[in-house]
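Dear colleagues,

As part of the handover before I leave the project, I'm documenting each prediction I ran so the next person doesn't have to rerun anything. This entry is a single chain, and its sequence is reproduced below.
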Amino acid sequence: MSTSSKPAEASSSSSSSSSSSGFSRKGLEDLMKRRFFVGPAFSIYQGVAGLYDYGPTGCAVKANLINLWRQHFVLNEDMLEVDCTSLTPEVVLATSGHVARFADFMVRDAVTNAPFRADHILEAHLDKLIEKEAKKDVVAELELVRRKCGDYNQEQLQEALRKYNVKAPETNNDISDPFPFNLMFKTQIGPSSQAVGYLRPETAQGIFVNFKRLLDYNGSRLPFAAAQIGNAFRNEIAPRSGLLRVREFTMAEIEHFVKEDDKSHPKFVDVAGMTANLLSAKSQGSTGEVVQMTFGDAVGSRTINNETLGYYMARTQLFLLAAGVKPARLRFRQHQSNEMAHYASDCWDAEIHTSYGWVECVGHADRSCFDLSQHSKASGVSLQVWEDFKDGPRMVDTVVPTINKGLLGKNFRNHAQKIIQHFESIADEDAMAMQAALEKDGSAKLTIN
């Protein structure tokens, strides 16, 4: 179970920099730069997009917010705080899946070769079409695509960009098809070019690789929570929206470890009566309606998957309200199936309505035991928790496939490794079904994606 507070991007709706109340976003940004709350980094050298420095007052505001977060979560919840290195060996992030999949889709101007993030220029183009369109049914279609395009895969993005004839901003030139761009900063550790590393794109992996130490520190007892506050780095394609989407930023993250078959929380009863604004995955695919519901009812109806996830969503709401967010401008948006990580059972983002629209501020995810399982398998170090049964030892039947790697290699060559990996992680019921087929027919069919 994890929660992370981080800068993210605007979503779901567009808005101007001014409101009817007279607020001017540009005026506020100019004031912050003039008084040096924050300022573009290296500005005497024309600066670098997506990098900012905090001045004296900005540092004080940031420190106050971090102190509030630490008091609200770490101290009040008796969490174990760690401070892990930002420089991360490649093997760690390859195991977590970041090397292969931590990417956004990019397009290039066909003439100037300028890069753009594909979903961003699609969103901007759709906003213009919505403003000009008079037909309600067409506007409804455009708004639905606008809400969902941030979660499109490569093929869906390509289809939408072509369908709506999206061109490069400013030049109006044609654009390339979208392609993935890995967002991690790659570097070399030490003088040997063989030691590849990355600046961490999140703070969670430092907690996962220290799980065994944290478990020992906690007396080998579950549940417990670990927290970390520190910088993360993402090589954004086109940084925008001021401090919301930058290349270096501070994250505050919690990983709460529970028993796989018991995700209840002893303090959930304290927050069950709190009301939240919930935008479910089902609603996003249809009406887009935000529903007010208590956390107790949301967990009871399985709108929110379990008590621990609901508890941390409620605690996040209390923190954001204490930090000054207005209740009417706060909602929780559930991830849709096309954006849900394959290992997650439920994910909700706390979003705040700003002059940029709805902005993701905190992510909440039930990550199951994916990360610990992956690191345990890759490192050879057990990250399991052993628990004595209260009623004494139990006999449990389990299936352990015996793999003839030499024979597999001889017959399947380049595909042998995928088959081996499949059998190493196969569920007991699947292994038993295959064994039954072998005993009955002398052969069994295996399909691997």
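Residues 7-20 have pLDDT under 50 and may be disordered. The CA atoms of residues 183 and 428 lie 37 Å apart.

All the best with the project,
I.
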